[in-house]
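Please annotate this fold before class:
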Amino acid sequence: MKKIIQTNDAPAPIGPYNQAVLSGNTLYISGQIAINPVDGKLVLSTIQEETEQVMRNLKAVLTAAEMNFENVVKSSIFINDMNNFTEINSIYSKYFKEETAPARETVEVANLPKFVNVEISMIAVK
């Protein structure tokens, strides 16, 4: 049985999907972009600030499911320019302990929703 996870502390979905779905003990978090949930505006001033907003959005969804970054077992990072990898990774890495970090892939793509620079989705397990 699946349970829909929703929080006002992360951006509302802009299509036919949910912020996250909990199935058993596994949480599937939809891709998050740098939308500030308070005012609905994109945070795009620097790639670091954009990535930080994405991670805050992911944290809010994890919290709504009574989890944290230690529960994350898989991350998928989509970026529009692999030249931004180092900056994105420096922000992302602040949220994980190296010895327990999740599996991950980072993929360069042609475009992302709202033409942002980074989108991250996660899978977490209780």
Summary: Residues 44 and 50 are 5 Å apart (CA to CA). The longest strand covers residues 72-79. The chain has one domain: 2-125. The mean pLDDT is 97.
